[in-house]
Amino acid sequence: SKSPSLIPELGEFLIANTPHGSSVATCDELNRLLTGIKLAAKVVNRELSKAGLADILGAAGIENVQGEQQQKLDVFANDKFIQALANREVVCGICSEELDEFIPVNPNSKYLILMDPLDGSSNIDVNVSVGTIFSILRRKTPVGTMPEISDFLQPGRSQLCAGYVLYGSSTQLVVTTGNGVQGFTLDPSLGTFYLSHPELKFPSSASVYSCNEGNWLAFPKGVKEFIDWCHDDEKGMRRPLSLRYIGSLVSDFHRNLLQGGIYLYPPTKKDRRGKLRLLYEANPMAMIAEQAGGMAVDGFNPILDIQPSSLHERVPLFTGSKVLVGQLMKMMKELSPEE
Ligand code: P6P
């Protein structure tokens, strides 16, 4: 096996693999952005690893824009990512799931960060893996002015970079700049992310579906038919798919990326537009999915083609192996949840 010094570090890899059509300057700025993300990820990782010990378990006693009980680590992670990014002169604005409005940062910068700083945080107290999801856009308004809401409301197809950090049995960072998908693993003894999963692609076969079947009654008819199809063995001609659902998007998505599978969050009676956020959950995962040879749709159309209308809008999300997303789309007739 190679010694760590021979395995590219994230920054070195990016410099060596300048995204198509990007100038070296862009690549350098992108690298500085990702350096901020890596730093914050290491700080969050350290706190998560001792969450059971510190008194930061449990709710912070305040609600976030989603009306969800904010876990103290949600607040901690949000603060650390904002600190690490706001100090980089390459960020002009930040949108976070934890904040009602976006934060203007530096009028002379070109890039926007949209993030869910700690997705799946309700799993923290039960020691289940959680993640950070991030998306990077280039601003549309002129440099030298503060960013406007229109800078953030760009279709996912415009993303310059998208990625996630998975705080699991190891801490991994999966990222794309539109030039394939690369996976890096943190060596905690050195504090460095090394290239561990080059050119990630969904396998050609897939045998897993990830979905909260507790919402079955409200699922649209086409989703119910697809899940019945997953359960079917076609008179013994094939094995039924396996249900694997961790309740943490980053964890479910990552397992499906490595082993083949589909993640479904359909509309439900409670969330009639689905639960997941378009700008900083569905869009970055969709860019990674497509770059890894998979798909991400709202049931009918690619997630990346949706024109956003507000910062925290929700969208139904079906993403993963092309063979399974294609099968679902064949069965979808309408998106409205069944009454
Ligand atoms: P449910 C976590 O809150 C999250 O946003 C995703 O990470 C996860 O896949 C989903 O919600 C779980 O939602 O309704 O099944 O508990």
Automatic annotation (TrEMBL):
<keyword id="KW-0479">Metal-binding</keyword>
<keyword id="KW-0963">Cytoplasm</keyword>
<dbReference type="GO" id="GO:0006000">
    <property type="term" value="P:fructose metabolic process"/>
</dbReference>
<dbReference type="InterPro" id="IPR000146">
    <property type="entry name" value="FBPase_class-1"/>
</dbReference>
<feature type="domain" description="Fructose-1-6-bisphosphatase class 1 C-terminal">
    <location>
        <begin position="203"/>
        <end position="333"/>
    </location>
</feature>
<dbReference type="GO" id="GO:0006094">
    <property type="term" value="P:gluconeogenesis"/>
</dbReference>
<comment type="similarity">
    <text>Belongs to the FBPase class 1 family.</text>
</comment>
<keyword id="KW-0460">Magnesium</keyword>
<dbReference type="GO" id="GO:0030388">
    <property type="term" value="P:fructose 1,6-bisphosphate metabolic process"/>
</dbReference>
<protein>
    <recommendedName>
        <fullName>fructose-bisphosphatase</fullName>
        <ecNumber>3.1.3.11</ecNumber>
    </recommendedName>
</protein>
<dbReference type="GO" id="GO:0006002">
    <property type="term" value="P:fructose 6-phosphate metabolic process"/>
</dbReference>
<dbReference type="InterPro" id="IPR028343">
    <property type="entry name" value="FBPtase"/>
</dbReference>
<dbReference type="InterPro" id="IPR020548">
    <property type="entry name" value="Fructose_bisphosphatase_AS"/>
</dbReference>
<dbReference type="GO" id="GO:0005829">
    <property type="term" value="C:cytosol"/>
</dbReference>
<dbReference type="GO" id="GO:0005986">
    <property type="term" value="P:sucrose biosynthetic process"/>
</dbReference>
<dbReference type="GO" id="GO:0046872">
    <property type="term" value="F:metal ion binding"/>
</dbReference>
<dbReference type="InterPro" id="IPR033391">
    <property type="entry name" value="FBPase_N"/>
</dbReference>
<feature type="domain" description="Fructose-1-6-bisphosphatase class I N-terminal">
    <location>
        <begin position="25"/>
        <end position="198"/>
    </location>
</feature>
<dbReference type="InterPro" id="IPR044015">
    <property type="entry name" value="FBPase_C_dom"/>
</dbReference>
<comment type="pathway">
    <text>Carbohydrate biosynthesis; Calvin cycle.</text>
</comment>
<keyword id="KW-0378">Hydrolase</keyword>
<dbReference type="GO" id="GO:0042132">
    <property type="term" value="F:fructose 1,6-bisphosphate 1-phosphatase activity"/>
</dbReference>
<dbReference type="Pfam" id="PF00316">
    <property type="entry name" value="FBPase"/>
</dbReference>
<keyword id="KW-0119">Carbohydrate metabolism</keyword>
<dbReference type="Pfam" id="PF18913">
    <property type="entry name" value="FBPase_C"/>
</dbReference>
